[in-house]
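== Protein entry: sequence and backbone fold ==
=== Local backbone shapes as whole numbers ===
==== Amino acids and backbone structure tokens ====
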Amino acid sequence: MRAITITYTYSGDETAWKNAIDTFVSALDADAELNGRFSYQVAIADDRETRIHWGRWDSAETLAHVQAQPYFKEFAGKVRDFAGGAPNATGHDIFTKTGNW
């Protein structure tokens, strides 16, 4: 399984930030092509400014599908805005995990 971790700091309008996250996650959940092949999580660190996003997918085709969608392009632009430029992004392979997650 392939994954990415995205981090940035944000101290702006929480409502705008939350709405962007909710809209993206809802679009992912509604995308019948994904059918459990792509997952996304977002966290706010204890400092209340560091934002952490984790995306996981099963194949290059799944990632290509997500990246081709209008909802992805809109969200990626918003994340750049929230981050004040390109966020820190680290791609990685999942080595091991617990449970079904």
Observations:
- Residues 2-93 form a domain with the Alpha-Beta Plaits fold (CATH 3.30.70.100).
- The first helix runs from residue 14 to 30.
- The chain has one domain: 2-93.
- The radius of gyration is 14 Å.
